[in-house]
Structures are given as structure tokens and as C-alpha cells.
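COURSE: Structural Biology Practicum
ASSIGNMENT: Worksheet 4, Part C
STUDENT ID: 0417
INSTRUCTIONS: Below are two proteins. For each, the amino acid sequence is given first, followed by its C-alpha cell string. Answer the questions at the end about the second protein only.

PROTEIN I
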Amino acid sequence: MWTRDLLMGVRFAVAGGRPGWARTTLTAIGVGLGVALLLFAASAPSVLQNVDSRADARVPIWYEDLAPGPDTLRYESIPTVYHGAQVTGMLLQPDAGEATTATPPPGVAAFPAPGEMVVSPALKRLLDSSGHEVLRERLAGYEITGTIGDAGLRGPAELVFYMGTDTLTDAAADGTPHHNRTDAFGASYPPTPLSPMLILLILVICVVLLMPVAVFIATAVRFGGERRDQRLAALRLVGADRSGTRRIAAGEALAGALLGLAVGLLFFLLLRQAASHITLAGTSAFPADFVPSAPLAVLILAAVPLSAVLVTLFALRGVAIEPLGVVRESADRPRRLWWRLVPAALGLMLLLPLAGAYSAGSGGARELQAGAGIVLVLVGATAFLPWLVERGVAAFRGGPVSWQLAVRRLQLGSGSASRAVSGITVAVAGAIALQMLFGGVQAEESGPTGYDTDEAQIQVVSSGMTAESSTGMLGELSGTQGVLDIFGSYSGYAVRPEDRQLPGELVAPGVYIADCTTLRKMADLPDCANGDVFLAADPDDPGEGTFPLPGPGDTVDVSVDADGAAWDPDRAGPDLWTVPDDALRVDSVGDPLGRWAHGILATPGALDGSRFGGGFTEVLINVDPDDRVDTVERLRTVLFGMPERPALWEIQSAWTSDEFASIQRGLLIGSIAVLALIGASMIVSQLEQLRERKRLLASLVAFGTKRTTLSASVLWQTAVPVALGLTVASVAGTVLGFVLMRMVGLRVTDWFGFLPMAAAGLVVIAVVTLASMPLLWRLMRPEGLRTE
């Protein structure tokens, strides 16, 4: 019985003439969009695993002491940045030269010879295109002899290069051991554990992004419900019983769902092939990376058809399909409220006990409880919306003709309108809660740095330069186009020999060699000339934890490290220097990075920096604000070829943790996909409703109704449910966000986080209305009066 009736429903779906094909096509497209997005979500573990495994596979295995051999090589990481994009680079030097038996990095066929390099396809395209002369200059001197294969790249858009060289040694420029020899690639390091706040944030993101998909699929299988019920009434006329008509309807929905699975799989395969050409927030992946998890794929393949059948049977529970018509066309029984509040109440009951108890040691049970609670609250918002739309439109009276047409249509049957808005209601409610939690977590995972970006925007540091090299670098940087001011110092440490006997772990005062302009950024100086020396201390800092600051006439050892010990134990002895008797004591001032100098400030004529045991170079640069981007790239190019590998940092007024930044990128990618799905779902639903009202629209035009009036009525029919849905979403999202923040002990900082989401809803109204206009005007033609 079930099999026969289900097969009959399938035949109605695929061989029921143009109306049946149209309904099945709309259902298949709607379900297909949702299935495709679910398959991409199910592929996320595979993508992350594949990307991370390829990244780990190219990391050299570190050895503290490895003897050279035919299968070993020296390496040095030389990354750079170009217009905000990370460029991963490495120098390679096999110990045995061309006779090496060492295995090259993944994706590289053979080690590049000195003066040669292999690059990723994306980097090669960048170098070959116009407008990137600065990057070509940075990598000049190396001939491109090959490209890196997929096995050596995190994604197709990654910028990577390997350079061949014969200049690497076992010591850095400052003489310290390098430990840069390996015999294999493939090191892996355990990931940094996430904080409870970030774990909860990820959990909320997953629920918020996937819930609208499930709602949309449930909505799609109910497309064309009114015409379907009329066909079922005709079947009752020829002898089918009520149970049989429900089974036939289930079969029709099953056919649309199965076809939707096929369409979704097709969408998934097509979009997967295009994945290599898409880069979102700096993230890309290869098509082969998108492999849905087997358990999740099986769950999707089973849940979608099953949910289609269950949703159809549930929708028919209040419809009396009789041989002479469908009783639903008379007045509907008012929707009941009590059971619609149960899911939200259960969700809050699950979430409230977690307030203040959600911690790093909570375990999977707490995460499952939190996830279930979030889902139930969002389901409750969706269940409450149809009741609110029904009661809301019932109270509307009067108004323009377009308003009355829209309201009357909603009063006669608000179910389809409510279903169309359910997806955006869930999405907006979740987005509001997510925005509140996101804002609270952002306060913990980011914040102001306190740096003065008006004084300096670039910091350059190097710990391996000699005093002579440091002076040369300052000259090159100051001559770079776009540099307005430059403040550079060469520093070491100094301690009086007798102070080394002091107990405790103390830090030696610094010795800073710089010109007077730079020293004035570090202390409040009187007159300054080359050859002067100053003793700077923070007037508000007693100097606890540091060696005593030397005074005028004191003898100090300038060959020590920060702990006051000899920098080079093999050195013959200390390098003693006497502080001039005329050295002035001055108060230090905060530099652009908010630091206060404590130590000796010397001009180049007073002390030779080559006497330091190990010198540290720091440069703060003020650049032309109108040419900042290009100036930064020119500075990176100047520094890239230096053997000491100075590091350049852009000084930021705010900081963000790396983990939080990664979650931000994932949220951006998921939000774009879900917003696209929501827009598509509402457009498809609106087109389906217009198609069912073709004769009515044509009749109204035939009786003299203006086309602009009907267009405005369509706008109102979309706007009213969306407005009510946004109201429900705002309340539910705000309550959910408050509870989530209590779970991790955060305070609400923004009670108006729903406003951007409400604005997004208005944009959706405009997009859906504009997209439906062409079909609406076509349906209002006289041909719409024809019937079969």
C-alpha cells in the first residue's frame, strides 16, 4: 500500500504536466541549494585536515645538533609580506650540493641551484602581471626555474617560493649557532588550545550558519502546496481515501527531495571545481580538499528525504482533503500558542544552568548541552513566527489598495509567507546572538595597543647586526621614497662589575646609541650634541628588578647580556667603559610604543657600538600617509636582501589574537554562503507564490487594477512578514546573546546589536522584490487567464 501510493506520488511529481514539473523543479532547486551548502559544511573537517597536513609536510624537522651528510641540507626561513598577503619563503642549500640525496620539500621536484628559485603558481602569476614591480625587485637575482605542486601548498592562492643558495653557514650574522640543518620535512606541532569563549563562539557560529539551511530545506519541500492539495482532492473524487492521499503527497515530496539531492550534489561538484578560483579572507583550498565526512554525508542523504516526508505529513495534519475540494480554503482554525513557546523554554532551561560554568574543562557534554539549547531557542523563534504573523495581520484594517490586497492575501493564508521568512528569522536571531557574543569575546581577544601611530607607523628590528651594518641600514631606510622621519637606535646592556654580586634575578640597564633627534623621543633632554651622554630613568618607576643605574664617572661592562652575564663566554674579558663625568640625569618619556627608557643614552661620538657583546637595532619610521601602502612595500624590499633578516612590523592601534582572527575569517566565509542561500530561498519562495496566483493577478489587471498597485502589494506581502520576523528575531537573538555571554562570564557591551541585522532584512526585502518584478509583470498579461 505504502509503496504503491508513494510511487504514484513520484509519478505525479515527474509526469504531472507543466504544473507538476514546475513545482518539482522549484523544490529540487530549493532543496539542492540547501544540500550543496550542507555538503560544503560537511567538507569543512576534510578541508582543514588537508590544508594543515600539507602545511605540516613542508616544515623542516628541527635538530639541535645534526652533522652534515649526503642527505642533509641547510635552510633558512625568509618570509615576507606583500600588500597584506603572507609570502612564505625559504633558502635551501644541500650539504652535498648537486650530489645530494636529500628529499626536497613537498611539491618541489628538485632542489633549485644557487641563483634559482621555484615558486607557487599564484606567485608566478603575480610576478608576471603588471603593477608588481616592487615584488619583482624584492625577489630579483633569482631565476624562476619551476613551480611548486599542489602537495607543497596550503591552497591554490598561496604565495610560496624556495630559493637555492650557497651562502648559508652554521652561524647567524651575530655569531650565534643557527641549528638550521635538517634531513627531512614533515614536522608537526600540537595546536594551541582554544579558550572556552572561542570554543563557544565556534559552536554558536556552526549552529547559526546551519540552522537556516535546515529551515530552508523544510520550506522548499512545501512549495506548491495549494495546487498539490487540489490534485489530491481530485484523487479523492476517483476513490482514494484520506490516508492514501497523504501517502501520495509524501511520495510527491519524496521525489522532489531525491531530485534535490541530485541537484545539490551537482551544485556541490560544480562549485567545488570553482573553489580553486575563490579566495575569501585570504583562505583558499583545492577542489580535492572538499570531501564530505562519510558519517555526515550519510546523515544528509538520509535526513533530507525523511524530513521531506515528515514535513509533508505534518503540513497535512490540519487539512481536510475531500472529493469536492480542500476545506483549508475556508477559515483556518487559529494557531495555538502554548506549544510554540515550549522549544524556546526548553532551550533556556538547558542554557541557564551553564551560566558562569562554561570553562575549558567543561568537556563535550557541556558543549552538546549548549548546542542543543541554542538550537531549541532558534526553533522556538521559528515556531512562534506563524502565530505572530497570523495575529498581526488580522488586526490590520484600511489603507491604500496595494496595502489592502497584501493584507487580505496574508489574512487568507499566512502560512507560505511565514515559511518563506523562517530562514531569515533564524539567521537574524542567531546573528544577533552571535554579534553580542562576538563583541564580548572581541573585548577579551583584542584591544587597543596604546601605540602612537601618529608619530610612527613602522617598526624595524634586528638582533644580528653589527654597528656598522646598523648605520648602513638606517641610511638606506631614510633614503626610501615615502619616508618622512626615521628614529633609529643601536643598543646593548651595561652593568658595573661590582653589581654582578647582587642577589636575585636582575635586568641590566640598557645602553642606547642614537642621534639627538632619536634620543629626544626617549627622554626629556636639554641641549644635545654629538658626544653627549645622558642617564635616563622613569621618574614614576623605582627601578625594582633591575641593576642600579650607573652614575657619572662609573665604570661599566658593555659586553654583557640582559642578565648582566658575559654575552660571549669565550671572550677574553669584559669590555669596560667609563661613563663621562658630565653625563646628565634626565627623565625618560614614553616613546611611540609606550615604553620608558631606563639606562644610558649615548650619542655616536661618545660610545662605539661595536663594543657591545650583541647589539640590537630598532628603527621607528614615520611615513607619508598618502603613500603608506607603497612605502611599506618599498621598505620591505630594502630589508629583504640583508643577511641579518631585519623584521618589519606595521604599528597598529589595536591588537587581535591569531585564533580570534581565524574565527573571524571562518565567520565571514560562512556568512557569505548563508546570506546567499537566504536571498535565493526567499526569491524562489516568492516566485512560487506568484506562480500559484497567476490567474488571480491576471484577473485583477483585467478588471482595471494598476500594475504598479500589484507591484506594491507584492512588496507589502514580503515586507510585513519580514518586519514581524525581524521583531521576533531581535527579541530572541538578544535574549540568547545575553544568556550566552553569561555562560562565559562576559558583560553585554552593546544592546543595539540587532540594528545592523534589521538593516540587512530591509536589504533582503528590496532584493526579493526586485527579483520578483519580471515574473510578476509577465504573469499579469491576459495569457494568465487561460486554464486547462
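PROTEIN II
(use this one for the questions)
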Amino acid sequence: MAIIERMTRMARGLAVIAVCMAAAMLGPSAAQAQQGAAAAGARGPTVTDIVVLGNQRIEPATVISYLTLKVGDPISEAALNQSVRQLYDTGLFRDAAVAVDGGKLLVQVAENPSINRINFEGNDLISDEQMLAIISSRPRRSFTRAQAEADAQALIDNYRATGRYGAVVEPVIIELPENRVDLVFEISEGDVTEIYRIDFVGNEQFSDGRLRGVIDTSESGFLGFILNSDVYDPDRLEFDKQLLRRFYLSQGFADFTVLSAVAELAPDREGFYITFTVEEGELYTFGEFEVINSAPALDPEDFQALIPEGLTGQTYDATQVEAIIEDMVYLAGQQGFAFMDVRPRARRNEAERTIDVAFELVEGPRVYVERIDIEGNDRTLDRVIRRQFEIVEGDAFNARAVEQARGRIRALGFFADVDVRTERGATDDRAVIKVEVEEQSTGSINFGLGFSSAVGPTGEISIQEANFLGRGQFARARVRVAEDSQIVDFTFEEPAFLDRDLRLGLNAFYRDEDLDDESSYEITSIGFIPSIAFPVSEPGRLRLFYEISNDDIRDLDDNVSPLIQRDEGDKLTSAIGFRYTHDLRDDPIETTSGYFLTFEQTFAGLGGDAQYSRSVVSAKGWTSFFADDVIASIELEGGAVYSTRKDLEVNERFFIGGDSLRGFAYGGIGPRDQSLGVDGKKRDDALGGDFYAVGRAEVSFPVGLPEEFGIHGGLFADVGTLWGLDDNSARDTNVDSASNGLDITVDDSAHLRAAVGASIFWDSGFGPLRLNFAIPVKKQSGDETEFFRLTVGTRF
């Protein structure tokens, strides 16, 4: 019995174990089945139908296509929300909602109105067609407030790009039947936003006025609201930062930094206050120079010779370093090393405030120009841009030559924007130069008004085109009229004749002048002057010219000098000549240092009636003091004319005075016929002179008035003389010349004249104005003096 009971208990245990194992094996499947049933219950119904409500113009199928849910899809809260978002994203509906009714999806929409038409009101400067091209809204499209606001901002941005920061644009809708609207942009264009004031903070070495002359942005001058206002351009401020840094680096301030450039709009929204905050740093001088040669084939002594002697100890000038680098790169190229790179290494000695400069000659990778691509030149011919490059396809690539070409393209003045970049070519040793330009207007019609105390009021009109037919040629026609003179001239210049650095010029002129006040006659001149100019050195340029003209001296007074009377009638002049200029000024317009030399000679006698040779030489130098606030200049000028076979005529001699010798009237000094005329009255006719010499010294300085007035003062001293008549003319001093049949008295001695005076310079809204007050301190009997002289002129 005991055995049977034991076996029964074992059987029960095995059964329990078997049931547990079966449960363990079946457990996962059962759990999955239960989870699947729970998920099915949570998923809810599927979409059996979609009904669109509230649509007017848009088809139901179009609305359904924007939904995330489709028929047969399970309905979930996330899918419903996503469908609503997609309806709003289309921009077609101002309201949208999705509801569920069993398996039916109910889509309720309210459509945005459609734009019937778009109008612009108040736009005088920009046409409706140009406005429409700026905005994105269009007729027959859906209207949205967000898009209308974006369009208004786009129009405002366009006005700001033209300097009108006070422009206001307000979008207004006019509701129409059938859920339509008219969209109206109400515009107040405002005035051009000027530059009220430019201030500098942190500048101790240079005055605000000097730095204003460095940057491109300028203040609206006094009376600028009438004629000559400047406008605010935010992009120009970045360029101004570069100009300031370049200026300070050229003046020895190697640590200079522009900390900020802030433009603050004035409360009236018609002008800006601009403030540059700078940190000048210390003044450095040049230390030692060294040439490090990494190319054994090159002689470093040749490159050391390119460093100017005496540069050590002078004020550090980054532009001089750049010039030396350019000379070294050029020399390496001349010696067959087209891929030579010159790397400057500057080492500061802060204790002694010096900068040592080492020029390392490194042979760079051999890269060639694969091609030069030019884009954006819709009007300007490709060759006008290509000739600014000293390298062409197939040449060794030179990064400095590319940068120089970029500067020359910008200097043309034909383009609003110039971008030059280098890209990889077909292989690693090939480079593609990409040039992108944006054309700008290069033609203009200019009107000018002026006044001179010598000739009275003057008027001028000119039509000019700086990029004639897109060929880079200059053409100008000009008419100038004054009380006693009329001038008409036409000028044409080809800057790259035969695709070389040869400037071909053609000038035709007509002049009619009444010289009754000076010499008792009138003269009419018609002429033609072709010329060609080319560089002979970095600062030197030579111009060769030929002149053919006809001069008609007429309408002589009854009491005119016999020396002028004999010149009456037509005379033909045929002459050749040259003019050499040597320009080492720091700035050709606002010069503060440097010098400018000219030498010109003319030889008449290649046919025609005139037989003479004329020479004129001048030299002028500038220097500045007190942070360039005070600018001093000295100028020397002289001329001589010689008759080769016959007497010189009155219009072939020199006349000085007025602006050329202040304190004396034009034609007021030099040989004069002061004998008695046929009416018994004393003649006073200026005859001109064969020789002249003039020296001028001048200093200009601020007078303490606000810079925006544009007023400066000056002091000057002029000394000069005009003398000599050709040998065959009556030239006896203070005696009657009966030997040649002329009963006249002429003094042609070289008597010195001198005058001192003061000037007022005013950069007015009408243009640069100058008032000279001069007192002759040395003169001769019979001289005509001039105490006051006013000149002013402008273009507008």
C-alpha cells in the first residue's frame, strides 16, 4: 500500500510539472494575443468617408488631397492635428477644423479671399510695374495678411536701398462680393535719408575732419538739402572700416582697430548720426629689412636692392610694404620664376616701437589660368573687363595680379558691384577666375551755374557717357556760355587703343571770346586736337598731340595798338607737342602730401601761318601739419615762347593774372601799349609776353566752425613776372619806335610783382566756392590790380 501511495504522489507531481511547462511554452503567445486585442480596441474606427464643408472656390478633392488621413486609414489624434496643420500651410484657408462622426471625417474650412487686383498709391519714384515685380502677391491668388505684410516690408527694403529710410508702406484691403478683395499698398516715400553728422571716438592723432576725408561716407554739406545731399548706405560702413584701417596702417599705426561703426536714425527719420569708435594704438617706425631666399636659383641681393635706401627709421607704411612685394614678384617673373610668392613677415618690437620686415621668397605650387569667366556684363563688352587683367588664359596664376585686376575693374566706374574669385579648374594645377559684375548707369546730363568776378555769371550744359556703346570709351559734348565768351567742345577718348595701355583722345572746339577789356579785340577759334597718352613709368605719363586750329582776330577798337592791329584776320596754326606728367600725390583730389610735375612743349610750323615753339613747366608740392588739419603747398611755374621765322601774334603769347597771379587782373601785368592813340587818348592794351615765371605759396586751415559748414581759411603769397616781346616787334623801353614805323611805347622788362592775401573756401551746396582777397605789395605803373576774386561752380 505504501508503495502504491508513493507512486500516486509521484504521478501527481509529474502532472503538475507538465502543466507548468505547457503554461510556460504557451504563455508568450497568449500575452501577445491579449496585447493585440487591447491595441485593436485603442485604435478606434477607420476612415470610411470624408466630407468637406464650407468650401466655395476650391474643389473637395483638392481639400482632401491636403489631408494626412485618407479613406481606410485608422483615425488618431496625431493624424487629425497634422491634417489641420497641412490645411493652414497651404495658405488657402483662414480657418480649418476636422471632426469625427463614427468613421466619417468632417472637414470644415473657411477660404481666404482671392485677390481681385493690386494697386499702389503714393509711389512717385517707382512705377507700378516695378513695384509688382518686388512683391509676391498676385491677382487671382489667395490673400493672406502675413504675405501682405511681407510684401510691404519688401517694398520698404527697396526704398531703403535707395536711401529713403523714412519710407512707410501700409497694406490695406477692400472687401468685395464673392469672397474677393482688392489689395492696396498705401505708400509714403519720404525724403532721401541724409547723413546729419559723422563722429569719431578714440582718435587722438587725427582730427575728425581728417578722418572724414578718408572714408567714403560723407556728411550732407551745408545747404545739402537743396542740391548735394549724401545718403546713408549700411554696406558702405563696412567699406569705410577698411579705408580707415588702410589709412592708419599707412601712417604707422599697425595696431589700429575699428571697434564699432554705429548708425543711429534721427527722431525725424530723415537723417543718420554715424559714430566710429576706434583704437589707434602706438606709432611704429620701420626697423630692419631682410630677404629670406628659399629658391637657390635666385640672388637675394637683387631683391634686397628693391628696398628703398633710408627706409629704416621712417614711419611704418603698409602700402610701401605692398609696393616692395609687387616689385619683387615682378622681378621674379622677369627672371623666369612665375610661381614665386613673396611672403612678408612683420616682427614688432613694442619696446622700441619698430617693425622689422622680412620678405621670404617661396616658390609656390605651379598653377595656371584655365579660363576667365565674366558674368553680369549685360552692356559692357568682355574685352573691356579682360584687358584689366595682366594675365590671360594659359599664364601662370598670380593671386596679386588677380587682386590688382579687381581694383582696376572697380576703378572703371562702370559697375555698382564687382566680385572676383578663384575656383578650382579641371585639375588641381588649373584655376578658373570668376568675374561677376553689376552694371550701373554711366551716362549723365549735367547742368552747371557759376560766377566769377572776372567774367560774371556762367552757364554750362554737358552730355557725357563714360562707357560709350559698352566699349569703355568716354564721350562728352559741352556748351559753356558767359557774358563775354562762348565755348563749345566735343571730347572722345579710347582708353585702350589697339588693346594696349594707350589712351587715344580726340577733341574739337569752338571758342568765341571778347577781350575788349584786356586788349580791345575779339577772337574766334575753331580747332581739332588728336592725342595719344601712355605710361612711361609708375608715376610718369606722356601725352603726344597734334593741333590744327584757325584763329580769327576781329572787331578791333579804333584806338587799338598797332601791334594788335597788324594781327587782324584769319591765321591757321598747325602744331605738334607733348606733355609729361609725374604724379606722386597721396590723393589727386584732397592732396595732403606729395608733388606733381608737368612739362609741356608745342612746336608750330608744320604748315599753316604760325611759326613758334612754346615750353611750359610747373612743379607743385604739398605737406601737412597738425594731423593734416593744416596743409601747405608751394608751386613754381614758368613758360617761354619763341618765334622761329616771324613775329608772334598777340594770341600766341602768354597772359597771366587772375587765378594764375592773384592780386592782379587777367592780362593786368606785362608788356602794354600805353602810347597815345589816333583819338589822342592813351592806349592801355595788354600785348602779352614771351616769357613768364610765377611762384605761389599757400596754406589752408580750419577756422573753428562746425565741419558740416564746410568752411576753411587760407593765406597765400604770389610772386611773378611777364616780360619780353619777340625781336621783330616794337620792344624799346619807354621810347618811340619810329624805326619800324610804329609810334608806340612798350615796356617789356621783367619787373617783379608780388601780392599777399587771404582766402575763404566753402564747400557749399552749390559747389566749391573760393573767395580771394589780395593786396599787391609790389607792382608797376599801369598794372591792373584785383583786390577781390570770387569763383563758384557746380553740377546738379
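ANSWER KEY EXCERPT:
Q1: Residues 2-43 form the longest helix (42 residues).
Q2: Confidence is low (pLDDT under 50) at residues 1-42, 222-229, 730-741.
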